[in-house]
């Protein structure tokens, strides 16, 4: 069964591992995800036929080093690192890294993605730089002081939101992100309103945003849009329109 049904069969347990931050399940299902995505891509390019036995071929050591496999690996490892960061579960990330190092070697697919969570990047440039550095702080429980906390939470939330939307695991990241966003901004509403800009205007906006009971993409988009002024962040009209469209539920 080397088709989209097999893709779903292999992705589902990885989805759950990412949502629940389960390092053992992630490692157990990681290589099979690399194999099926690589095989389907090769099929589409006319570079592979369905095997006679119907089984998805294993990846050779040379195939494990190809850019396409590494891109898929980076995406999956990044997704796991993001959800682990939102739970401050550094041990889970360490366990995944160690297991992949032992089984696949130093240059394992996903190693570059993980690098962004480990390196000290003084001047972030790419989205991955920003997300990795924010996640690094979360994993080490490096909590900003109260006057800076709301703004840093908003900025981290925006970067995570943008990264999630580019991932094969958008929904698996977005649900934990919505829960994390709600927790951080509930904390702000209870303990940190004194550090918001234009307090009288923005406290009602914050409370109204938190009244939405659903933890999904629309909740996160709406909160990012509505609370940008509260942390003195300016979004251009195009980006405001983008968030506004995502905040609507059909």
Describe it.
By secondary structure, this protein is mostly helical. The chain folds into 2 domains: 1-142, no CATH class; 170-250, no CATH class. Helices cover 70% and strands 0% of the residues. It contains 12 helices and no strands. α1 runs parallel beside α4 (67-86). It starts with a helix and ends with a helix.
Largest sheet: none
- List how many beta strands DSSP finds: 0
- SS class: mainly alpha
Radius of gyration: 20 Å
The proportion of residues in beta strands is: under 5%
User: What is the overall shape?
Assistant: elongated
Measure the end-to-end span: 35 Å
Query: Helix content range of the residues, please?
Result: over 70%
Contiguous helical run count: 12
Estimate nothing, just give the exact number of structural domains: 2
Give the H and E element order.
HHHHHHHHHHHH
Mean pLDDT across every amino acid position: 94
Name the poorly predicted regions: none
